[in-house]
Amino acid sequence: MEVVVASGKGGTGKTFIASNLTYFIWREEGVAVGVDADAEAPDLLVALGGSRRRINAREVRESRKARIDPGKCTGCLRCFEVCRFNAVDVRGGVPSIIEEYCEGCGACAIACPAGCIDFYVARTGYINVDESAAGPIIVTADLEVGGRNTGDLVYLAKEEGRRLAWELGARHVVVDAAAGIGCPVISSLAGADLLIVVVEPTPPSLKGAKRLLDVAEQFRLRAYLILNKYDLAPDYAEKVAEELGIEVLGRVRYDRVVAEAYASMEPLLARDPQHEVSKTLTSIFKHLLECVLH
Predict the structure, then answer these.
(1) Same domain, yes or no, for 183 and 155?
(2) Judgement on whether residues 161 and 15 belong to the same structural domain of the protein
(3) Among 20, 65, 127, 247, fewest CB within 10 Å belongs to which?
C-alpha cells in the first residue's frame, strides 16, 4: 500500500514521522521503500543517515524554456514588454532569456515580430535512488534550481517507488509529501491508499490540515491523524483532533531527543529505541501495520 505522510503546513514533524515509519517497516519486514516527494527541499534521505550507496540517478527533462536567436533579433523589446515573469534580460541591448525565471508560457514568441524565439526542453531535475545508511531504499525527487513542474517530478518519483517495491517485494511505500497543498502535494496524494496527517497544536497547523483534508477528499483517501508535540498545548491539541474529525493514531510529545536524532542524521527508533518517544512511535506504527495496513 502507498502511505502518504503530509501536513498542510511546514514544520509539524512530517519528515520525522515519515523517516521513522519507513525505518520501522524496514526493521520489521526487512525491506522498505520511501519516496521523498518534497522536490524543492528533499530531506528524507538525510533523516535516514544519508546515502550508503547510489543505486540509480535519472535526469528528467520536462520544462519548456524560451530562447532568442540574436542573429534574427531586431531589438524591438516586445518580448521584454509582454513577459510577466521578468525572464527577459535586456542588459547589453540584445535581449536574452533568464532560464530560471522562464515559465515557457510562449507570450514572448507570440509577440515577437521577427520570429526569432523558439523553445527547448530544459532539465527539470533528477530522480535519485539510494540505499540509505539506516537501511531503507529512498527515491528522491530533486528539483533543479529554479525548476518548475514539481508535480510531474513527484509523479515520476512515485512511479519509481512503486516499481522498486514490486521488484524488492516491499508491501508498503511511504511517501514524504511537501508542505502545503500545492502541485507536489496533489501529485503525492494521487493514486495513494492512505493519508497520515501530522499536526502540531497551533492554529496555522489546524488550518493547513483542514485544507489538506479538503484536497484528500477529492481523491477519496482514508485519512488518519498523528498529534505531534501535543504536550506543548494539550487542550488545543484535543481541539485540533475534534475539529479535524478523523481517527487519531497517536500523540507524540515534544522532546529534545528528536532534535538530537535529526542533528546526528539518525532515525530516533535506531538512535534510542528505548526512549519514551520511540516507544510511542513503535506503538503507533505497530497499530498502523497490524490494524490499518493489514
Answers:
(1) yes
(2) yes
(3) 247
